[in-house]
Amino acid sequence: MLLFALGFLLVILQPSSGQFPRVCANVQSLLSKECCPPWGGDGSPCGELSGRGSCQNILLSQAPLGPQFPFSGVDDREDWPSVFYNRTCRCEGNFTGFNCGECKFGFSGLNCTERQVKTRRNIFQLTTSEKNKFLAYLNLAKHIPSQEYVIAIGTYAQMNNGSNPMFRDINVYDLFVWMHYYASRDTLLGGSNVWRDIDFAHEAPGFLPWHRVFLLMWERQIQRITGDENFTIPYWDWRDAEDCEVCNDEYMGGRHPTNPNLLSPASIFSSWQVICTRSEEYNSQQALCSATSEGPIRRNPGNNDKSRTPRLPSSADVEFCLSLTQYESGPMDKMANYSFRNTLEGFADPQTAISNPAQSSMHNALHIYMNGSMSQVQGSANDPIFVLHHAFVDSIFERWLRRHRPMLEVYPAANAPIGHNRENYMVPFIPLYRNGEFFKPSRELGYDYEYLQEPALESFQDFLIPYLQQARQIWAWLVGAAVFGGIITAMLTGLIRACWKKKGGTSSEIQPLLTGSEDYNNITYQSNF
Questions:
Q1: Whole-number Å distance between alpha carbons of 245 and 508
Q2: What average pLDDT does the structure give for the chain?
Q3: What is the number of other CB atoms lying within 10 angstroms of the CB of residue 527?
Q4: How far is the C-alpha of 187 from the C-alpha of 301, rounded, in Å?
Q5: Alpha-carbon torsion (314, 319, 322, 326), positive or negative
Q6: 472: Cβ contacts below 8 Å, ≥ 6 apart
Q7: Any domain includes 13
Q8: Residues 380-392, buried b or exposed e (16+ Cβ, 10 A)?
Q9: Dist CA 145 CA 468 (whole Å)
Q10: Is residue 34 within a helix (H) or strand (E), and if so which, with residue range?
Q11: Which of 94, 267, 430, 522 suits a disulfide with 112, CB 3.0-4.6 Å?
Q12: Helix axes 172-184, 128-143, angle to 10 degrees
């Protein structure tokens, strides 16, 4: 199966989402601050001649930020991507991509008009053939260079403000490892100084939308390099797990027989080299990760610090998390209380929702439990278990969205940590995506989860379902209330009639209260359910 997958190495790749588009990583694009490449279909920038999009000035959010980052103009990621480009392709309709050459998530076809919903499945529900194909696809991504994207190996200042581009090639899998690193790296302040309290993908409202986009882009990239348009990321349901159920050679790699910190030689992942794991070294050199190899994947599941993460998350933890009605609260960082996002991310107690950064629960618990490459934020995506884990985290986010049906306004518009306001563009994605664009049900983005699947419904029916379910639960009470109300109404009517008869009818001085025709339309009737 691996040889079959490697046969796709000569496939002509289409554009996809990622980091710096290769066609814009040059002196001309950096000095002009414009990244509006031509679409191959008609040769015009952004496919403008075909109505796909046009080259436009970037519209940056002016909403105030939280106090966590007290600097301005010191980090290339501020007001992303304006340090590098202030004009990019703005795509129309269902088109997207750095040159408007692809379809938005959830659409396909030549004109991106065909809706599609694909299903992500439990990795243990895959057939042997499907599971082996998934492993082969992962390995292919690790060994095939990205045709469309390169990574920055220097800051904009180190590039002499664009006149000395510093970029390099990278393989498809490591492109995503690097993007995760770049979003979460420390700010380099010069000398040996850094600012650590900054993260464009974690510890704030954008945590869940950011990783949702990350997985969608990763999924699409695998579809492209393999030609398998039906590929979806499997998930690992880790609720109530007593150990790492995927940590064996049949799946994601077992333990090395003589070194418990390494993977079994029988696993294809034992030969993988990690990148972007030496944050202190980069900080001391005031340098960016250059994606050079830094050794094998390290993993020693279960031998973690038990005082910080005593166990893996339980079903009860997940259910409590889902019961929280607030998406975000308070400072909107890892100190937030009663926040669904902060509790799911793992900085708040999954039994009280009170912030406790000294403990690592829920999402964080899995990273700490793996006790290796996955346990260090910036380099955690090196371990392929990362995608299985985050797919399941995303499914919990999806359950919360379906249960509470929040309006877009629930996602904070202002005062969140840098990069996390609703209208901020996510670092470091090009094409540009705003946080709020992915605060919506997954089916609108073209995918669903096997264990969450419901029949396809029209939007109005879909809206009514939760209320119909509530009514079904109390139908007996409703029927009883209706009968009781009818009896009371009949009794009152009888008493009123009896009173009128007793008084001998209605005199000319005692008339029913009538509403003049000129006032009739001004009356409003209200009923409370």
A1: 87
A2: 88
A3: 4
A4: 31
A5: negative
A6: none
A7: no
A8: bbbbbbbbbbbbb
A9: 51
A10: strand 34-35
A11: 94
A12: 70
303 with 262: CB under 8 angstroms?
no
Q: How far apart are CA 339 and CA 335, in angstroms?
A: 9
State what percent of residues in the chain have pLDDT above 70. Answer: 82
Other C-beta atoms lying within 10 Å of the C-beta of residue 492 = 10
**How much is the pTM?**
0.84
Lowest mean pLDDT among 362-371, 412-421, 453-462, 514-523: 514-523
- Tell me, what DSSP letter sits at residue 100? S
For the chain, the first-to-last Cα distance in angstroms comes to 59
Q: In the numeric block, which tokens belong to residue 312?
A: 């893996």
- Structural domain boundaries, residue 234: 22-452
pLDDT tens-digit series, residues 201-247: 999 999 999 999 999 999 999 999 999 999 999 999 999 999 999 99
Spatial contact of 100 and 346, defined as CB atoms under 8 Å apart: no
d(CA 348, CA 355): 4
* Predicted confidence band of residue 69 (pLDDT cuts 50, 70, 90): very high
Q: Where are the beta strands (DSSP E) in 153-228?
A: 167-168, 187-190, 193-195
Q: In the structure encoding, which two tokens stand for residue 232, read together?
A: 């979806």
Report yes or no on 527 lying in a domain: no
What pLDDT is attached to residue 285? Answer: 96
List the CATH number of the domain containing 291: 1.10.1280.10
Neighbours of 399 (CB within 10 A): 17
Assess if residue 121 is contained within a domain.
yes
Residue whose token pair is 């939308």: 209
Report the pLDDT value the prediction gives residue 1, as an integer from 0 to 100: 41
Would you call 261 exposed, middle or buried from its count of C-beta atoms within 10 A (0-12, 13-18, 19+)? middle
Amino acid at 216: L
Q: Nearest CA to 127 among 250, 219, 264, 302?
A: 250
How many domains are contained in the chain? Answer: 1
Residue 263 lies in a domain: yes
DSSP string, 431-461: S--BGGGGSS-GGGGTEEEGGG------HHH
The CA distance from 283 to 194, in Å, is 7
Report d(CA 449, CA 392) in Å as an integer. 9
What's the CA dihedral at 467, 470, 474, 476 to 10 degrees?
A: 60
Kindly report the length of the chain: 529
